[in-house]
């Protein structure tokens, strides 16, 4: 069973976001989470940055999976972000990041959190998928590539 299918919606697929730092990405996701889930954007921003302080969530190959636990969030939520230009991210391979899957989970969802992270890491291991995610222009098709069903 795909966890990604359960947590990602087409409305949470953002293509060619024009930002230059992690900070700006986290602010944008926080704004969307505030509007869609009534969770203060500052909670989202702080949770994502607190996790980054423990170590970079960059996987390598231009991919990162920033994630955070959010008190008051009822269900896990995902956001796919493709950046207009890659940004420095402290990934293990030193490469900048252009593809991000931002994961927010309720503060008590430890097992689910790990299962989703595992699924995402496995998904992004595919070079073919990463290449498709970089060129696809239709958010609905991109959503399908990530395991969603329109």
Describe this structure in words.
Keywords: Sugar transport, Transport. It comes from Leeia speluncae. This is PTS sugar transporter subunit IIA. With 150 residues, the chain is an alpha/beta fold. Helices cover 43% and strands 23% of the residues. The protein has six helices and six strands; from the N terminus they run αβααβββββααα. The protein starts with a helix and ends in a 5-residue tail after the last helix. The mean pLDDT is 92.
Topology:
Blueprint (H helix, E strand, L loop, with lengths): L2 H5 L5 E5 L4 H16 L3 H14 L3 E3 L2 E2 L2 E4 L6 E11 L9 E10 L3 H14 L3 H9 L3 H7 L5
Parallel strand pairs: 1-5, 3-6, 4-6
Antiparallel strand pairs: 2-3, 5-6
Helix pairs in contact: 2-3
How would you sum up the global shape?
globular
Alpha-carbon distance between the termini?
16 Å
Q: In percent terms, what proportion of residues is strand?
A: 15-25%
Mean pLDDT score, rounded?
Answer: 92
Short structural summary:
InterPro entries: PTrfase/Anion_transptr, PTS_EIIA_type-2_dom, PTS_SugarTrans_NitroReg. It comes from Leeia speluncae. The protein is an alpha/beta fold.
Structure keywords:
150 residues, single chain, transport, 6-stranded mixed sheet, 43% helix, 23% strand, sugar transport, PTrfase/Anion_transptr
């Amino acid at each position: 069973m795909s966890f990604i299918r359960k947590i990602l919606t087409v409305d949470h697929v953002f293509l060619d976001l024009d930002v230059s730092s992690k900070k700006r990405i986290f602010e944008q996701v926080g704004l969307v989470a505030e509007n869609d889930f009534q969770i203060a954007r500052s909670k989202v921003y702080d949770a994502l940055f607190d996790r980054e302080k423990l170590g970079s969530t960059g996987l390598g190959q231009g991919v990162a999976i920033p994630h955070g636990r959010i008190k008051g969030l009822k269900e896990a939520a995902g956001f796919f972000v493709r950046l207009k230009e890659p940004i420095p991210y402290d990934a293990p391979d030193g490469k900048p990041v252009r593809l991000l899957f931002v994961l927010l989970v309720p503060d008590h969802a430890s097992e689910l959190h790990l299962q989703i992270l595992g699924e995402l890491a496995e998904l992004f291991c595919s070079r073919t998928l990463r290449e498709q995610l970089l060129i696809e222009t239709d958010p609905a098709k991109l959503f399908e590539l990530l395991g969603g069903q329109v």
